């Protein structure tokens, strides 16, 4: 299930991001604050929300596009914050630029998936199917 991958990877990246925040606080060196912020947001919050969306709307999570989205989002969530670290410490912007493009590509795929699965017809069909599954059988 692609939602499981997103939920699990996001909490791990969130733990790494929060640990980086603790380390920054202990060392009183906030140079890497933008990397910490983006790892927590692009690595934890955003993929966790996508994982929840795929749980709430299984049709969206079952699509092939969702698979592409998940892997691209995970790749971007790793490459982008590392790219921020590199640009802050060495000035080279190659990795941060590539990471940014990957993150944007993943976000675009997710936007397409959300638009497709929130169309009135898609929502109605899904709700009807869900209602059928949870319907209490007549006595
Ligand atoms: C254990 C948890 C966390 C710790 C110890 C922590 C620690 C820190 C520290 C020390 C800073 C730098 C403050 C400064 O520059 O004066 C910071 C900045 C920031 N943190 Fe966290 N943080 C944690 C969790 C989070 C989470 C979960 C998010 C987002 C979901 C987040 C988002 C941010 C943002 C947006 C900034 C500002 C970055 C900037 O100014 O460039 N943090 N955090």
Give structural notes.
The protein is 86% helix and 0% strand. It has helices at residues 2-27, 33-56, 58-61, 64-89, 94-117, 120-134. The protein is built from 6 helices and no strands. The longest helix has 26 residues, at 2-27. The chain is elongated. With 139 residues, the chain is an all-alpha fold. It starts with a helix and ends in a 5-residue tail after the last helix. It has one domain (2-131). Helix 2 runs antiparallel to helix 4. The model has no long low-confidence stretch (mean pLDDT 92). Protoporphyrin IX containing FE binds at residues 18, 21-22, 24-25, 30, 33-34, 36-37, 40-41, 45.
Approximate helicity band: over 70%
Associated small molecules:
protoporphyrin IX containing FE
Beta content comes to under 5%
Which oligomerization state do the chains in this entry correspond to? single chain
Instruction: Compute the CA-based radius of gyration.
Output: 19 Å
- N-to-C SSE series? HHHHHH
The residue ranges in which pLDDT falls below 50 over 5 or more consecutive positions are none
Structural class: mainly alpha
β-strand number: 0
How many domains? The number is: 1
CA(first)-CA(last) distance: 35 Å
Shape: elongated
Number of helices: 6
What kind of sheet is the major sheet?
A: none
- In round numbers, the mean pLDDT is 92
